[in-house]
């Protein structure tokens, strides 16, 4: 037995300071430690209540500790947890059927995260291009200010230098264009491009919706050059924008789509969806994962998809979105010195800071947090709201009240 451990390790008291003492400092978490949650309600170690408008960065779309998902997972826990991909299992087969029947796709590959889903998509795109056209067709085109994950490959494809500094040399044959800039796309997407990867709404880059003409142009250029179009819907997918996936809103069908975050409502799972023609280039042994498609994650994800992919549920997302947008537009009008024009889609919403408060988004969210409202940022200049899709009208009103109180306190302290 490790001499450092004692018999009470599982119940040993821990605090926020423990993070600074024992965890690798890749994050700077809030000063409180959540210990219990239900729906959009969260309580910390001191018993303080918070209204959660982050849903774990657009993950817990059906709320924390969702009873339906808890029951489904508990039942699966009593049968089989893990088999390895030397075998298949019933939950993953049902999930694969549900996703292919609900989308453009014929085939699904399951993994554990959005980064892994994008890694699989990019590898498949290169494999397809090399197999169909030859190794000269290998270049990847992405957008500046995009975010596609934290592996070396996906962080290189993401167009943010702050995430690649110190990790050089980076993988070659990756170029970046301006988001929503059609001329930039036309100049970059030529016959040597294997794939173009884009978020239909940029999340980490500031909650910026893709212009429909820009996305349509990407589709046309990919068709013209034989490149594959990949939609990264890790953050925008699974009902977040009022459709199961945002490509359905914009009327542009990708060749490959990646999904994660809300797919498991907090249980780790990612998916890559594609067509029969493209999927055949991932033959046996070409790619893999130990845990991807395990029965536990697949069970949760299947219940998530079946719950969210209903007309009434998606209609309610749009209704809740309209209420929040109206509140934020009024907030920005009442505090023009503090906030800019609200943007986003569905329940993925960005509220930019006004010119005089650029770089202060995190400071504002900390003020709101002290008042009991959990918010996100999307870069230093944008407050991001991504509440659970089950958010109620009363919770929307409560969030508006707290954001106004936070604005008053923030300005008073400035």
UniProtKB/TrEMBL annotation:
N6-(pyridoxal phosphate)lysine, modified sites: 261
Keyword annotations of the record: Amino-acid biosynthesis, Aminotransferase, Arginine biosynthesis, Cytoplasm, Pyridoxal phosphate, Transferase
The keyword GTP-binding is assigned to this record: no
Catalytic activity from the UniProt record: N(2)-acetyl-L-ornithine + 2-oxoglutarate = N-acetyl-L-glutamate 5-semialdehyde + L-glutamate
Miscellaneous comment as given in the Swiss-Prot or TrEMBL entry: May also have succinyldiaminopimelate aminotransferase activity, thus carrying out the corresponding step in lysine biosynthesis.
Family statement drawn from the similarity comment of this UniProt entry: Belongs to the class-III pyridoxal-phosphate-dependent aminotransferase family. ArgD subfamily.
Assembly, per entry: Homodimer.
Protein name according to UniProt: Acetylornithine aminotransferase
Originating species: Massilia solisilvae
């Amino acid at each position: 037995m490790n001499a450092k451990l004692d018999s009470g390790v599982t119940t040993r008291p821990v605090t926020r300071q423990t993070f600074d003492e024992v965890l690798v400092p890749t994050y700077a978490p809030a000063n409180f430690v959540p210990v219990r949650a239900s729906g959009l309600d969260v309580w910390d170690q001191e018993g303080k209540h918070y209204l959660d408008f982050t849903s774990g960065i657009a993950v817990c779309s059906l709320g924390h500790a969702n009873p339906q998902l808890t029951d489904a997972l508990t039942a699966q826990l009593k049968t089989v947890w893990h088999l390895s991909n030397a075998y298949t299992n019933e939950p993953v087969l049902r999930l694969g059927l549900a996703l292919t029947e609900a989308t453009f796709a014929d085939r699904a590959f399951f993994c554990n995260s959005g980064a892994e889903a994008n890694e699989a998509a990019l590898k498949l795109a290169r494999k397809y291009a090399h197999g169909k056209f030859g190794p000269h067709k290998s270049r990847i085109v992405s957008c500046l200010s995009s975010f596609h994950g934290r592996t070396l490959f996906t962080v290189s494809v993401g167009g943010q230098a702050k995430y690649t500094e110190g990790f050089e040399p980076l993988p070659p044959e990756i170029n970046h264009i301006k988001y929503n800039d059609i001329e930039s796309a036309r100049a970059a997407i030529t016959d040597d491009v294997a794939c173009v990867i884009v978020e239909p709404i940029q999340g980490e880059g500031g909650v910026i919706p893709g212009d429909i003409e820009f996305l349509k142009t990407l589709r046309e250029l990919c068709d013209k050059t034989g490149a594959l179009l990949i939609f990264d819907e890790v953050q925008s997918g699974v009902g977040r924008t009022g459709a199961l996936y945002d490509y359905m809103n914009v009327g542009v069908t990708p060749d490959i789509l990646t999904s994660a975050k809300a797919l498991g409502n907090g249980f780790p799972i990612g998916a890559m969806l594609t067509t029969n023609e493209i999927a055949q280039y991932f033959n046996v042994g070409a790619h893999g994962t130990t845990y991807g498609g395990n029965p536990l994650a697949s069970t949760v994800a299947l219940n998530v998809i079946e719950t969210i992919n209903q007309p009434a549920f998606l209609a309610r997302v749009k209704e809740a979105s309209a209420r929040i947008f109206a509140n934020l537009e009024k907030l920005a009008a009442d505090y023009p010195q503090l906030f800019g024009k609200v943007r986003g889609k569905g329940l993925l919403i960005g509220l930019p800071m006004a010119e005089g408060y650029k770089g202060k988004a995190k400071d504002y969210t900390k003020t709101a947090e002290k008042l009991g409202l959990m918010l996100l940022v999307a870069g230093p200049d944008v407050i991001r709201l991504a509440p659970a899709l089950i958010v109620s009208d009363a919770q929307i009103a409560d969030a508006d009240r707290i954001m106004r109180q936070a604005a008053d306190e923030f300005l008073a302290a400035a």
